[in-house]
Amino acid sequence: MSKLVYIETFGCQMNAVDSARMLSLLESADYRPAPSLGDADLVLLNTCSIREKADQKIRSALGELRRWKSARAGRLVAVGGCLAQQEGARLAGRAPHVDLVFGTHSIARLPDLIRNAEKGSSRIDIGLSGDTSHWETLPYLPDGSVTAMVTIMQGCDNYCAYCIVPHVRGNEISRSSREILDEIRGLADRGVTEVILLGQNVNSYGRKEGEISFPGLVRKIAAVPGISRIRFITSHPRDLDPETIGLFGEIETLCPHVHLPLQSGSDRILSLMGRGYARSEYLSKVKSLRRARPGIAFSSDFIVGFPGEKEEDFEQTLAVMEEVRYDSAFSFRFSPRPGTRAASMPDAVPSAEAGRRLRRLQSLQDGHTRERLDACIGKEFEVLVEGRSARDEAQHFGRTPCYKAVNFTAEETGTGPFRRVRIRAAGSHSLSGVEGDHRD
Ligand code: SAH
Ligand code: SF4
Ligand code: F3S
User: Fold this and answer.
1) Residue 354: per-residue pLDDT
2) CB of 335 closer than 6 angstroms to any ligand 2 atom
3) Of the candidates 336, 329, 323, 339, which has an alpha carbon nearest to the alpha carbon of residue 290?
4) What is the pTM of this model?
5) Which mutation among 13, 160, 232, 275 tests ligand 2's pocket best, with the greatest number of atoms within 8 A of CB?
6) Taking CA atoms, which of 235, 283, 336, 370 is between 20 and 30 Å from 183?
7) pLDDT at residue number 413
8) What is the architecture, at CATH level 2, of domain 141-255?
9) Does the CB atom of residue 177 touch ligand 2 within 6 A?
């Protein structure tokens, strides 16, 4: 009889898709997905270490697993992902109930590692070996899925001063375009119609490997029958080139939304961060994107309180926000990460001051988010239906081409994954509406 595995995923979409791949891989070690933690024989934490808060959350989740493990003999605890990569042996030393610590490059070996852990041997595997053979395994995808994430690269070569990712994910490695296209054709055969291409810096796809360029890849994906929505994340503003910007005018199935993390609106701070672009270059790319696809939506990430950030630097971030008026944004207080350049930079911003800036930024963004959502009221959108609404089973949940979340009521007569939805109201982060050409 097969055993049950429960995976708890922290962090970004890279981790989400890695977890889905782990589920597929573990089938070969005779594990099926567990409906809940209580049923599981093996629990696997796929961790993140992007900010200290993520660290703390995981450490407390790990603490709670001590009781879970002792409740039944033979239960196993495995920890993988970025925090596992960062902490390695230290993590295993501090938490004796952890049976296996495996790094971000050990995914392909997971079935063997778990078999060894079942026998009580070898607890740690965290070499950054450059092994990408896990890409040959398709991520687990629930039946009926219409959207899927597709890894196109891993790691990052940018070493932004604040960021742990290159340290824990290793250098950038792109996947072969043949393998990516095969995976996407297979997904389309299973009914998937939207693909989200994943990488820390998708615009530099294939450069090191001499592969086709990122725009070349997107064009090939657009030609796959059945794929009617393409998205990608994340674009580094420095590497977003004119050809990629042009794709938004050229390929209709490329969705009108770009996640373009600004981080800071001050050139001085951008340079300390090592981001490789100036505010004016960023803004001119925003303009070109708007020219290529009028109405395109923008989202961003911001860090406030980076070492040396003065009030006037922060004001410049707010000024760029006023100019772009992002549809949505993630914003964070700077968090020093071990081994990064910024962790030892002088002129730390006092935490209370960073908190105040963060609140100001978030309240400005809340207003812009609201304004962008309100502008959708009364309009009709093609919504890709992903399932039932989390807050009301009677409603459906989906996303507009601009990636806005929509909860809506529908006549059950509609078929196919897309519905025309008229927006009736806007909340603080999502829209609600009704299917069809209903008018008030
Ligand atoms: N590859 C993406 C982002 C990956 S991390 C990019 O280049 O933009 C996601 C976001 O976390 C970053 O955009 C940044 O805003 C935030 N972040 C990363 N390291 C951080 C740190 N040390 N402190 C606070 N926020 C951080
Ligand atoms: Fe981190 Fe910068 Fe790479 Fe993004 S581009 S993952 S922020 S180092
Ligand atoms: Fe992602 Fe967190 Fe790792 S954001 S790449 S899971 S550090």
Assistant:
1) 98
2) no
3) 323
4) 0.96
5) 160
6) 235
7) 61
8) 2-Layer Sandwich (3.30)
9) no
Whole-number pLDDT of residue 411 = 76
Instruction: Tell whether ligand 3 has an atom less than 6 A from the beta carbon of residue 50.
Output: yes
Ligand nearest to the CA of 156: 2
Q: What is the pLDDT of residue 54?
A: 83
Domain boundaries 266-375, CATH class: alpha beta
Widest pairwise Cα distance in the chain: 67
Spatial separation of the C-alpha atoms in residues 45 and 195, rounded to whole Å:
26
Q: Which residues line ligand 1 (CB under 6 A)?
A: 50-51, 162-163, 165, 200-201, 234, 236, 261, 263, 301, 303, 332, 334-335, 337
For the domain 3-125, what is the CATH code?
3.40.50.2300
Cis status, amide bond into 234, omega within 30 of 0? yes
Q: Where are the domains of the chain?
A: 3-125, 141-255, 266-375, 380-435
What does the DSSP 8-state code read for residue 254? Answer: B
Q: Say if CB 238 and CB 207 are below 8 A apart.
A: no
CATH class for domain 380-435? Answer: mainly beta
- Identical fold for domains 141-255 and 266-375, yes or no, is yes
pLDDT at 55: 82
Regarding the beta carbon of 303 and ligand 2, being less than 6 Å apart is answered no
Buried-state track 361-387, b at ≥16 Cβ within 10 A, e below 16: bbebbeebbeebbeebeeebbebbbbe
Ligand that lies nearest to the alpha carbon of residue 166, given by its number in the listed order: 2
Atom of ligand 3 nearest to the CA of 49: 7
- Determine the atom of ligand 2 nearest the C-alpha atom of 201: 5
Write out the two tokens for 280: 């004016």
Most informative mutation of 85, 169, 236, 301 for ligand 2 (most atoms within 8 A of CB): 236
Cβ atoms of 351 and 309 within 8 Å: the answer is no
Cα of 224 vs centre of ligand 1, distance in Å, is 32
Q: Which atom of ligand 3 is nearest to the CA of 200?
A: 5
Nearest ligand 2 atom to the CA of 200 is 6
What residues contact 30, with CB distance under 8 A and at least 6 apart? 2, 3
Query: CB-based burial of residue 174 (10 Å sphere; 0-12 exposed, 13-18 middle, 19+ buried)?
Result: buried
User: pLDDT means per 10 residues in the chain (440 residues)?
Assistant: 93 96 94 95 96 88 93 95 93 90 96 93 89 94 95 97 97 97 97 97 95 97 98 97 97 98 98 98 98 98 98 98 98 97 98 98 98 98 93 92 95 79 96 76
DSSP state of 416: S
Residues found in the chain:
440
Residue 11 CB less than 6 A away from ligand 3: yes
> Residue 18 and residue 80: Cα distance in Å, rounded?
10
